[in-house]
Amino acid sequence: MLDKLLTFSRHNKMALLALMDALLLPLALWSAVVLRLGGYWDPKLDPYLWIFIVPPLWVIPIFVKLGLYRAVLKYLDDKIVYTVFTGVSLAVLVLTAVIVMARIAPFPRSSIIIFWMFAMAYIGGSRFVLRGLVRRIDSVDAPREHVIIYGAGQAGVQLMLALQAGKEYRPMAFVDDNPESWKRTYRGLSVHAPDDLPLLIEETTASCILLAMPSVSRGRQREILESLEHLRIPIKRLPGMADLVSGEARVEELKEVEIEDLLGRDPVPPRPELLARNIQGRVVMVTGAGGSIGSELVRQIARNNPARIVLFELTEFALYAIDQELSQLAPDIPRTPLLGSVTDYARLCQIMRSFAVETVYHAAAYKHVPMVEHNPVAGIVNNAFGTDTTARAAEDCGVDTFVLISTDKAVRPTNVMGATKRLAELTLQGRHASGSNTRFVMVRFGNVLGSSGSVVPLFKKQIKAGGPVTVTHPDITRYFMTIPEAAQLVIQAGAMGEGGDVFVLDMGEPVKIADLARRMVHLSGLEVRDDKHPGGDIEIRFSGLRPGEKLYEELLIGDNVLPTDHPRILRAQEYHLPAEELQHFMQQLDEACRALDGAQAFALMQQVVHEFRAAPATQDWVVLQQG
Predict the structure, then answer these.
(1) What residues make up the domain containing 586?
(2) Residues contacting 93, CB < 8 A, separation 6+
(3) Of the candidates 257, 283, 311, which is a domain's last residue?
(4) Which PANTHER family match (predicted)?
(5) How many distinct helices (H) and strands (E) make up the chain?
(6) Which pTM does this prediction carry?
(7) 96 or 373: whose pLDDT is higher?
(8) Separation CA 137–CA 130 (nearest Å)
């Protein structure tokens, strides 16, 4: 019966509710009079039976005015009590006035107060009863996934209310770290200690844990996730508090737990004066603007009010994508998307002079280690000569600041990619040493989470496909940092450099890649298949180190490092080559690359980058094919 009523139109439902109130109000008044008279009817009231018909005539219009019938039953909240209270109170005042003016002497005056209480109970109670019935029908019609909410604070309670009103999840219990909240209940859901989770999951058949702690630090969030890892159950989380406050996300919009949440550190707030120093009111050019780091630099730059952003990119689609994104992110910031190569000196000079570029962030590079390892000439040309060409153009065009995005792989490199980035650093140090008016700054950091070629997207794809997850070596470790934090630190380091500086970003503690893979499997609610768990879901397979790959990355060549004003930025004191020696090597290297002589170019790289220890497996695929 109720199912059919729920299919009625909105106007029909409102009419039925009004009809229900028209019956409940006389019933409330009759109940009040009979209760006041001790359960007996006074015959003296027979001439005044019309008074029982009167309340709906003015109360229902009052309810209409207050919006009582516009409220959707399924989503009724406690505000309905205030609406009913206001309407019934006004009705009692009108009823009192009618009784006084009509001089109904036999009518017991105290029954008016009792009528107020009965009307509140009948009208308000009927709404909550109907709401419960509607929600119960919904829950039967649409089976929902059972979940446990971790966090019984305000965000957790709001999440519970949102989920109870939805059709996707059914909250079954709360878990919270605060002992004072244990044994409390919210809408029938009890709050439990974290130690109760294994039993709760079994009893409630919960298939997911929802983290409702958007304001806790990243460090605390990491601790919680690590404590939940052994449960082998998928975990989702609320968006961050900043997104909730800004309106970019809603409480019920749950996100998958990202590996950033497990590895991320508590970020150090950026210093606005450092972010703005090379950007605000200036023409800023970003090479490789469509790449992982380049695109994030563009986003950060746009937030610091540049006079113009020049987007320089070789790949057409990548340039189109960042240009479209920037048009939405900062439509008022002038921007110019330009195609070109960092090896094209004439094109670079034309652009820098035409737009009077003042700051250059050089993010263009080939960075995938195995790919560059087997294409060494292309890697040298793009990474080393591309940097030197762009720096020469910047110097000749009067650019004030040139910031190179370098890598930890430039430290004692064992691969061509790392060696080319170290050579890029050496060329900038050489230009500074020769008295350039352009301030050259290098910023060196490790892996960034989620960048193209990063292990994190690869692991996600492999887990989704059912495995195996491939790791090169059981002991391989890497430093990780989020892309936004890396971009902010690059901009701040670039503002601190005096020229020729090599800055090193504090990457935190290194992470074992095998542990990273294991955690990602566990956070997906799956079990790793190994000797201890032969019936597991996902196998972690070790494929062997790739050509040029190191077990451990470093950030410093020597031990000479100085602190800066920023706790996450260090200044490295490292060697550079005399200008004549470097120029001699660069000329020879240029000749070898032009001749496509990979073997000679490779040998020269080992001479110019003193600490380069090439991997024995390095092979130029073209030379290999030529035999």
Answers:
(1) 272-608
(2) none
(3) 257
(4) POLYSACCHARIDE BIOSYNTHESIS PROTEIN EPSC-RELATED (PTHR43318:SF1), UDP-N-ACETYLGLUCOSAMINE 4,6-DEHYDRATASE (PTHR43318)
(5) 25, 23
(6) 0.68
(7) 373
(8) 11
